[in-house]
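User: Second chain of the day. Same drill as before.
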Amino acid sequence: MTSTSCNEIARELLDRCLAGRPPAELPPALVEEPGGQALFGILVEGLADRFEPRLCDVYARLFSQAVAQTAENVDPASLTARYERVRRPRPISGEPHRVFVLSRVTLGADVAVTSVLLAAAKQRFPHAEIVFVGPRKNYDLFAGDPRLRHAEMAYRRGGLRERLAVWGPLEALLAAPDAVVIDPDSRLTQLGLLPVCPDDGYHLFESRGYGGETDRALPELAAAWAEETFGVYGAKPYVAFERSVAGGHTSVSLGIGENPAKRIPDPFEERLLALLSAGGATLAIDKGAGGEEAARVERAVQRSAVNAAFWEGSFAGFAAIIAASRLYVGYDSAGQHVAAACGVPLVSIFAGFPAPRMFHRWCPTGERATVIRVDRPDPLETLERVRAAIGG
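Assistant: Same format as last time:
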């Protein structure tokens, strides 16, 4: 079966789930390659991005079947029954020796969500060892925090078998005695579905369902869950870099995370850069992951005829540049959450969201954050809205 056929199956399945008519069985074609990309990119993300509690139930039932078809000795009914138990918030009791906090794997989510739970864990357990579990590039956002230790856990983004390869090593790590595991809806556990330790020491922040029908942002919901679970009030997002950089510039990210719907059509980007450089402001622009994204940024700089310094390196390196900025401007991406966590004035151009609640959940928070919601991606209209925002 071709990847195109798998995409069609996944889209039809997602439509049925959103319409309240989920199937009883997951199509086997989505479990084996090349269906894995459609399973995650269309179905799993499509269910998660709506932030509807009822879709958490649908995800748990269907994805449990996918795991059972891939891993040995797995009963899908047992997976869903466990998920029903651990998704309920409950206070942490006792004083564990070690607290494992799992990475969300995506960089922006680790700032907006995971860092809130790290902050709460540090406050609640001042004498415990706090361990960040996840990829090195994610830990680098917090590497300057002396309270944290890193347990590297790579996550491969291929098909289902590749993604489940982390399950065994994760279980072995989290088997440490006298430990608590905090899961912020991590991809390492497939959004809390994989059992990685005894239930009594495991606490899941089900970010897709927590908050119900409200329009609260994820950092606020993570803080509310931390208050309910840790008994800690007012936890906020943070970052901690090993090195700082000189400031005074305007930092810009035009990255879209392989989602073209987030981008405003030409000539928006070149005119945005010209606007931001007016008055002699120095621009520091991230080239992102390279390839077409870097080429697009280079074209925008060339057409705008601005003087700009490019960043080509780790995201943590660019995050340190953001932290030293006088202003940050970019599309909905990890950069906006770094700016918000650092108290840097920011303008986020937010387009391409599949449902209004996703917009509300992923909005950066803070008094210095201005979010421009784009329902109709008109380049000139959006530019004028940015002009008004930075003028204020």
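The first strand starts at residue 98 and ends at 102.

User: Great, on to the next one.
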